[in-house]
Amino acid sequence: MDSFEKNNVTWKRIFLNTFLFCFASLICLVIYLLFLSKDLPSLDELQKFNPDQVSKIISSDGEVLKKLYVAKRDMVSINVIPEDLRNALLSMEDRDFYNHHGINIKGIIRAVIVDIINLSAKQGASTLTQQLARTMYESIGMERSILRKIKEFITAIKIEQTYTKSEILELYLNSVYFGHGTYGIQSASIYYFSKDASDLSLVESSLLIGLLPAPAIYSPIKYPDRAERRKNLVIKVMNELNYISDKEFENAKNETIIVSKYDYDSSPAPHFSEYIRRELEKIDSELGVNLYKDGLNIHTSLDSRIQSILTNAFNKTMVKNQKIFNKDLLNNKDRLDYVSKKNNISIDSLKNILENNLEIPAYLRKQLLVQGSAVVIDPIHGSVLGMIGGRTEKEYLDHFNRSTQAKRQPGSVFKPFIYLSAIENGYLPCTQLLNQPLVFFIDDTTRWNPQNHDGSTGLLTTLRDGMKKSLNLISVRVVQELISPQDVKKTSERLGITTNIKPVDAIALGVSEVYPLNITMSYSALANNGILNQPLAINLIRDNNDLIIKEFTSESVEVADQKEIFILRDMMKSVIDNGTGGSLRWKYKFYAPMAGKTGTTNSKTDAWFIGFTPYIVIGIWVGMDDPQMKLGEKQYGSNAAMPIFADAIKEIYNLGNYYHLGKIVKINLKEDWEIPSGIVEKNICKDTCCLGTDWCDSYKEYFIENNVPNETCQEYSNPLFRFK
User: Fold this and answer.
1) What is the per-residue pLDDT across 236-245, written as a single tens digit (0 to 9) for each?
2) Which among 278, 377, 622, 649 is least surrounded, fewest beta carbons within 10 Å?
3) Phi/psi class of residue 589: alpha, beta or left (left: φ > 0; alpha: ψ in -120 to 50)?
């Protein structure tokens, strides 16, 4: 074989070996890529990408009350994203976006050259699609390595094959991190500028896009100068690429950035929002949802306008109550000593806080901070229209919801259950009992002698007057002489009280503890003619595609006879018209038909007022977290709690409506309860409480038609007896 043939054979062997090596390498590369691909998102995952989103608690009138999230992320369509923002993004992050298929080869070569020249990694070459791949799928990882880049390339190509360019832009802008816990352009827009992304200006868009390389470094909140320089760089590049004119560039460069930080954690109804969150956590697994990731829209019963009215009324009175408490405590050495010893603080330091109405430190609030709760209920539907669970000032706001979590003695607001029990047992509003002291022997050494709140006594007194004047001696005698404590317990439970009501003699004075929301709900049955609707706070839940997951309805139960409820309610109207709640008429000038009850515990630790109209029930509690502390010697329910009710109900009636299931329910300012069939009206002699004659000083009283007084007044049977 000559040299030519030998060389030819040699080259053939070299070619064959090279080919086999390349083929084997290719096979290995394919196998390796297939191996890598098993950890990468499938086509199905790519098509169903669904990042964590913010869930929203929404009022019945459409206001967002609270956002729940792991990451602050609100999704928004590409169609509403301003063109300036999209152009700013492409200018800074991917100028060849519309010309590549996931990987920008020219960009990679350019980056390599720059890095070689600088002898370090100075130039990035990732396309938007590659960045999206890293953001969307955790399996790719974030470490700087060849392996990660290969995974990124593969996934980017898959994404380009799966989505359109517009869809990729939308996914990117909804996924990318903008700092301060915000993900996506909508959340960033709300956080930094308190506006929707659709309303972003050129300057605002430029600032947000300028954050992307390093949100922590360029934060306009922490480093406004840096953010300003980045904004100017973005608009400069946009001008160079002819996205904006020279004039637009100059105007944008000179425009001042106004950042108005939005507090994602704030809420106009913080205690209600927390109540909703807790209720949802009980059922989220049952519904198959994640409250913090699924972007749910939780539509509630609360009317944000009524909540605002309630909050203003509450805050106004609580400031006043705090000043009264401070002044009263300054003059009470025993209670000052109690607070001083309990908290290891000097008397002088305490006095300084009280005298100057200073902010109360956290460790003293249980003894020094006047607290309260307020609930507004629509008795017709059971909807919770407003809720306050404690002081609402930012410095005093806590997560303990006193409306739903605090057990408090109701005092005299428990008395309607006592009088209803008597009515259900056949007793009349004009039934008389002796308004004189009683003595109960608890054991051989202890006795209980209840008193009226003002220490007064009297002669024979009707049940109506007992209710009207909140006479403890009359309610005690009702339990002793007409019915039993067990009767009262059963009545209260039937009307929805869920706490442990002890059937003891002192039940007449409301010593067993109740939840404010719970007892307010019970009063709604009195407003709704004996029909009790369980409190409804959540109306429905929608998923992030606006599909209904679950609708909620209030359980409605008839708990009392309509006629007996009418009699009781009319007695409670006397409380407002000329009883302990009379200032609602003469002082606060509220004249719509209504009923209610004041309440104060003996220790002045708890002050109550619960009032209602045919449309609205409002329950107010004011008190101290520490039951050893008094509100003040003259802080009765009519002074400490009722002003909140008065201001709130007047403004609600001035509003003239409320929202239910997104629809307006109008309030008829003059509407009274209808007299049910089977109720009769009779004249009753004020002196004898018998059926009145033409010569009696009488008043009108309502009775159930088969239970009417059967005796006519004999004392004033003719005109002469009137003057004897």
Assistant:
1) 999 999 999 9
2) 278
3) left
